Amino acid sequence: MYKNIGYLFLAFLLYALNAGFFRNFEFFGVLPNLLLLLLVYTALEDEDYFFLGFGFFTGLVLDFATQVFVGSFALGFLFAALLLRQISQNIISLERNWKFLPLMLGVAQLVVYAWIFFLNGLAHRFGHAQVFFEAKYLLNRFGWEFLYNLALMYPVWKLAEIPKVLQVKFSGRIK
Amino acid sequence: MKFIYTKAFAIFFICLAILAFLMFLNSRGALGQIQKFFLKMPEPAVKAGAYATGSIKSFFSVLYNLKQLSTENTELKNRVVELKTSLTQAEGDIRDNEILRKELGFKKTSKLSLVPCEVMSSNILNLTDTLVLNCGSDEGVKEGQVVMAQGHVVGKIIYTNKNTSTARLATSSKFLIDARVSKTGQSAVVEGSFSSGMLLNQIPQSAPLEKGWLIVTAGINSQVPKDLLIGEVGEVVSTSNDLFKKASLLTPVDFSNLQFVYVAQ
User: Parallel, antiparallel, or unpaired: how do β-strands B176-181 and B146-149 relate?
Assistant: First the structure.
């Protein structure tokens, strides 16, 4: 329970960092997506199923913050989380190392972008979405955002380990 | 064990159900309050982060631009002298204008009505070039109305809820507004330029255009009042072989740090 509360608090902190701090450090027109990095961590490292609801909730927050059609980020994060868990458990069953993490990040980002393009585009087609994203625009952003996220992956990963440490400290065991 | 019998599927299904409910609320326009709650929650932390980086950024940018500051200071002093001269002439024109209007019996046009709004969320991932404002249709905000900050046009309303609205920034590549050159009255179009600035476009090659000239709204669209300041001409970026003249527009507004804006009605 302490671990899950820690993840929620960390999500709040990372959102504030993304919106307040990193907004002034834009590279090639993109900003990092720290909540996506946290999602990758929880999908790969979390033992129970908290990561699913957590991914959905953080995606929903991004939906409201970015003005895409509600559900674009939420479903993207949900499917990305499921896919990452399936890949890490069934396809790459080896001990995790830093070589496969960029691949996981790339897969997660691709799934999120695919959902944004698909769902937001569909909603825009029927007049329910406020903005529309062309595939070319998303593809142009993808590479730079991936590199920016990759650069921040290590510090976010280390931060994300704090809730687990708290869990051990307060309850004496890892759940 | 089949996926549909697992705990993961149950959580997945609950998430889909919640999302379906939220989509239904969105179609009814009832998501405004929920959106406001999600955006208001981290506001203190967001402002603290923005304040911290603002100070750091301005410190380093001052150091980086020290050499330019001295030149800019001299240019600005000369500009102030020129503007004071223009102001004196303009005051005389205003007096003459008033007299003529009285004689011809023109009615004065209604004054601009500005609705103050707070920016709740701005461009967190730089994905949409939009702002979420805390004023909506209840305050009289409508789609197509212009958003202003520091006396300059910064965007247009593209979507309204009861209590919130979304504005597209003027730097967005999808932003377009009819404009005119204040000095000559020449019609033009201002468009955003891939989140980095604004471009003045569709000026005939034969029309004069100089650096520093003011660009204002043309007032062709009934939703957009006339003579709202958009920016001033920077560099002419087109060549004589292009069909139209194009120029960059300069504005003192920092689009990445907007906190309070006004919607012009």
Answer: unpaired
- Residue B97 shares a structural domain with residue B115: no
Nearest-neighbour CA in chain A from B74: distance (Å): 29
Euclidean distance between CA atoms B134 and B154, whole angstroms: 16
Q: Are B153 and B216 in contact (CB under 8 A)?
A: no
CB contact under 8 A, B39 and A65: yes
Residue A110 has pLDDT above 70, yes or no: yes
Q: What is the ipTM of this complex?
A: 0.79
Q: Report d(CA B31, CA B39) in Å as an integer.
A: 12
**What range does the domain containing B240 cover?**
109-265
Residue B8 lies in a domain: no
Size of interface A-B (CB pairs under 8 A): 137
Domain boundary among B104, B122, B155: B104
Q: Specify the pairing of strand B176-181 against strand B114-122.
A: unpaired
The four Cα atoms A83, A86, A87, A93 give a dihedral, to 10 degrees, of: 160
The tens digit of pLDDT for each residue in A45-90 reads: 877 788 888 999 999 988 888 878 888 999 999 999 989 888 887 7
- Tell me which residues of chain A, numbers 90 to 109, contact chain B at a CB-CB cutoff of 8 Å: none
Cα–Cα distance list, B134 to B29, B160, B259 (Å): 15, 10, 11
Residues of B in contact with A61 (CB under 8 A): 38
Angle between helices A135-160 and A34-45 (to 10 degrees): 60
Residue B110: per-residue pLDDT: 47
Q: Give the CATH number of the domain where residue B177 resides.
A: 2.40.10.340
Q: Does A7 touch chain B (CB under 8 A)?
A: no
Q: Does B85 touch chain A (CB under 8 A)?
A: no
The shortest CB-CB distance from A128 to any of B19, B27, B158 is to B27
| Nearest CA distance, A111 vs chain B (angstrom) | 16
Q: Tell which of B42, B76, B104 closes a domain.
A: B104
Residue A38 structure tokens: 């946290």
Q: Cα(A11)–Cα(A91) distance, rounded to whole angstroms?
A: 28
